Structures are given as structure tokens and as C-alpha cells.
Amino acid sequence: MAAATVSKFCSSRNLENAKDLRLKPLQNLNVLKLQRNFAAHRLTSTKVLSYQNSKGGSGTIYADSNEVERPWKTSDARLVLEDGSIWRAKSFGATGTQVGEVVFNTSLTGYQEILTDPSYAGQFVLMTNPHIGNTGVNPDDEESSQCFLGGLIIRSLSISTSNWRCTETLGDYLAKRNIIGIYDVDTRAITRRLRQDGSLIGVLSTDDSRTDEDLLEMAKNWKIVGVDLISGVSCDAPYEWSEKTDSDWEFKRDQHSANKYHVIAYDFGIKHNILRRLTSYGCKITVVPSTWPASETLKLKPDGVLFSNGPGDPAAVPYAVETVKGIIGKVPVFGICMGHQLIGQALGGKTFKMKFGHHGGNHPVSDLRTSRVDISAQNHNYAVDPASLPEGAEVTHVNLNDNSCAGLAFPKMKLMSLQYHPESSPGPHDSDLAFGEFVELMKANKV
Q: What is the model's pLDDT at position 6?
């Protein structure tokens, strides 16, 4: 007999009749457990009923004469998608209402890296791995100074943390950074919808005063295509970066030299680990804002220039394309993700929005030059159209899931680029070799 039923049943009888109860289900339920459960329910009006069962056993039932306040969390949040679908959920982290583009990420772990990746600005990230939060968060896994994504969508929120590096729970972490999270939602169904229909604009809300129609209207009126997002995640002024990969995580100690090459890194939403890996490979790093003029960069006479990852539509930042145009061909350059797309446009090529993008730590990429296959981490919604590139530009890598362009080279222009994250280590360190290639490119240019 369910607890609420027992409560209602018992409260309808007086103490004299309660002793005559002959309820076998009460024997099957652990009576002590039943008592604890009722106590946990924080009954607003409680009657204590003694009873004696058919076998002579006795005990006490805590009965509610009014209402039971549930100790478990009930649905208090909604995700409303632009296609009109409404998904009820439970909230954690911050509260409020937020609009964003919903994308799914297939990584099994590494959610803190995802939360602090500036390339997720303007997006809600749905994790396809159903269980999130068990490792908590820690100060060592931050990829930027703050969280830039609009919200986090997960199936099951871990009720405990067990990692030795954990300093706080995921919920507390998100609350401090004003990021909305929802759980107990069918992430598999939403993922299938995104795969079928493509990325969708959605609204996350914990505000009961807003109707479903209000939230749907917000989703339909919000746009991410054609919006400059990199200016909101870039640094404000140049600064020097000197931190290497921590010795506990370094895995190629025998081949790095100290400050041999000076690299200017354009911050379109750069991740800290890109800077750490470059420094570990013997580079002195100067990070500059996304609007830093090409002429100022060339005045510093760098050995190479890095165009970093970043969020949004590369066609929405023509000023960045002009900067890339002013630098390529003059010094060796390396583009990652947004940097790769900007290089494609600077060469005269075109970029296009993918159906649902690539987001995850398990994407196979083939190096067409060697037939080597790397397992890569990816996060992008746009790609370069190889057919639009000029003669001399070659596709060096392809994503084996859909054969999209995942890397470019143009030897005459002294450039290389990748449409994934070589600094990220979702398990393998396959792609880290790209930093060595960039160093070799700078070395050859110095000779």
C-alpha cells in the first residue's frame, strides 16, 4: 500500500479502530522504514496511530490529516523548442529564463571543460551521456575564466561526488556562475529530434509566470546565425601567457624547448589548454583581442600566429576575416576551429552551417597525408566548403562521420588549420602532434 494511501486510510479511522487493521502489505513493507519515510515527509498535521496486526505484532503509523510535503524535487523547469515541443524537467544551478541554440555533445565526461569552453557561447549543451555530475568540479579543469554557455541539459544528475579532485558539486558551481541546468528530461528523445531536424533554438525557464506560448515566441524570435559572438568572449587587451602544461599531465617531456618561438595568439574565444600546449612546445605567447589589427601584429615580428577557436558564425565577423587576410602569407599561421573557418574565408572559400554540428570527444578524423586516424574532440556548427577553396589549398583531414573538411594546408602561404581541438585530451592524445607541426612550420620559415 502506497505511503499516501496508508496515510489517508489511517487518518480516516480513530485510534480504537486502528488496532484492528489486518493489512498484510504493512508487514511486507518494513514498518520502521515506513515510519522513517513518514517522518521525512515533514507532515504538516500528524496523528500517531498504534496498531496490532493479525500475528500479534504492533507498531506506530504516522498519519497525515492534511497534505504531505514531498521530500523529492518535482518538475519546476521547462525547455521549449522552436518546433513547439515542450519538455518538463527539474532545475539545478541558477534560476530564471534563458534563450539559446540547443546542441548535443557525445562526450562521456569532461563536462567542466565543456562548461568553460567559450565556443559554446549562445548555446545550450545537451549531454547524451545520461549520468552527469559524479566527479563534481575542480579549479584545475577550467578552460577559461568563466562559463559562456547558456545552459546545461542532462538526463540524470548525480546525487553525490566521488572524485579526489572535487571541490564542489556541479549544481553549486552552476548556481555561482548564473547558469541554468535541467535534469530528469528525455535527452535521448531530444537528441534524436536534433539529429532529424537540426539544431533548434530553445528557451530554458524556471519562471512559472511565463506561459508556454510566451516562451515559444521567445524561441521563434531569437537568432544566432549572422551574430558576432566572438567579441563577447575575447580579451580586452593584449597579455602574455607563460603557463605550461602541469607536470602531472605532461606526456611529452623530452621534446620541448624554452621560449624558442614567439607566437601571437588571436583570442576569438581561446581555451587555456591551447596556450599551455603551445608554451610546452617551446613558444612564448602573446594573446591579443579579436579586433587587434594585422599591422600591429606584424610590427611585433612574430615567428607565427595562432587563430583560435571561438563561437558562432564566421561569416558574421568580417573584421576578423580581414585580419587573417592581412597576415597569411607573411608569417606561418595555425588556425583552430573558428580560426580554421576564418582562414577558409580569407582564402576566398565559403563556410556553411551544419545540420547539427560536431560536439564531442570521440570523433574519428583521418589525416589524408598519412592515412592515420585520430580520435578527436570537436565543437563547431560551421564548416569550410572544400569546393570553394582556391588552387593550392589542400584538404589534409576529413571527419570520418560525414567526410566534412577537418583540416587545411597551403604550403605556399605557410599555413595549416584544423576543424577540431588538438589540445583537448578526451582519452587519447592523438591530435597533440599538430602543435609539433606548427613548430616545424615556424622552424622552416626561420631558416
A: 39
Pairing of strands 86-93, 180-183: antiparallel
Distance CA 421, CA 372 (A): 17
Q: Rounded to 5 degrees, what are φ and ψ at 78? A: -135, 145
Active site residue 421: yes
- Is 283 a residue of the active site? no
Residues 429 and 270: their CA atoms lie apart, in Å, by 19
Cβ pair 67, 173 in contact under 8 A: no
Is pLDDT of 24 > 50? no
Query: 324: part of which helix (H) or strand (E)?
Result: helix 318-327
Is 82 annotated as catalytic?
Answer: no
Angle between helices 338-346 and 318-327 (to 10 degrees): 70
Task: Render pLDDT for 355-377 as a digit per residue (tens, 0 to 9).
Answer: 999 999 999 999 999 999 999 99
| Cα end-to-end span (Å), the chain | 83
pTM for this one? 0.84
DSSP notation for 384-431: EEGGGSPTT-EEEEEETTT--EEEEEEGGGTEEEESSBTT--SS--GG
How confident is the model at residue 170, as a pLDDT?
97
Q: State the catalytic residue, choosing from 10, 147, 337, 405.
A: 337
